[in-house]
Amino acid sequence: MRKVILGFLFSINFLVAEGQTMEVVYSNPKDTLFNYYIAFKPQGEVKGLLVLLTSFGESPQITSNETDIHKIANKNGLITVFASLQYGTYTFFIDSLSQSSIDQLLKNLHERYGIINKPIFLGGFSLGGSGVIKYAERANANAGLLKPKAIFAIDPPLDFERLYYSLEYAVRNSTVPIAKNEADYFIKRIQYEFQSYPEYDKTPFQTISPYSFSDTNQTNIKFLANTPVMLISEPDIIWQMEERDRSLYELNVLDCSLAINSLRLMGNNNAKLVLTANKGYRKLSGKKNPHSWSIADSEETINWLLSFAKN
Known about the structure:
The structure is a single chain. By secondary structure, the chain is of the alpha/beta class. It has a single domain, classed as 3-Layer(aba) Sandwich (Rossmann fold). Helix content is about 35%, strand content about 20%. The protein has a nine-stranded mixed sheet with strand order 1-2-3-5-4-6-7-8-9, with helices on both faces. Helix 4 (about 125-140) links the parallel strand 6 and strand 7. The longest helix is centred in the middle third of the chain and has 18 residues, at about 175-195. The N and C termini lie far apart (about 40 Å).
């Protein structure tokens, strides 16, 4: 039986910079790969909490070196947490076990850091961003969950029916090994997580996906009608075509634009789509990639989140 580990019991503290302390907290000191988080804490008054979910394949250590958003957050009094969930770098984020893990993580953080009557913000990249959107929808539908003041996601896939078809296209047509292998893996993973595929039954895709174009009732995304949401993408279609054999249909910006437009049509004036150009690169490798943490401007993102702190 699959279980969610409930507590975080063991921690190591480091002074990493003037005015900033890093704390690594493990649920099991013998297991340093799963169910742990890295917290960056400001030395002064704590004004809130920012929880960041990594992308598939990224550890919190890697993520904290790919972005400096935690540095800007700390300057503004926010404790910033990079989290590893139940399957570590192989976490899928939107499945029920991952979501239960996020539920418990936020509860633990709320208690550990005494974030009482202070704002909680959520952000994530790629599948981690998908998990953020999914959690916020569930939190607004469930009185027992902690509700974020505002959320952001960097280039997240949201409509997994669209994603599945785009992966099938890549397997059939791509000549780039990295794109073809990635597509083959995620087709199998989606079939496992959804226990279905769209040609057979769309219902799980409409139910589990944070956003579903084919669901005319907008069942999940409507729970964000009153939540500030910012989605950030860099639709560098020429790079995608030349480096990954991908068309516009295969880019997550399609989901992001549809989701934000749907929210705006519902009257959400705080639903924002940010499109960037020539900002995408991986800091650790120095390689260009429009699907990266770097497309989010750290100061602009933190200032946008904090503008809703007292709402």
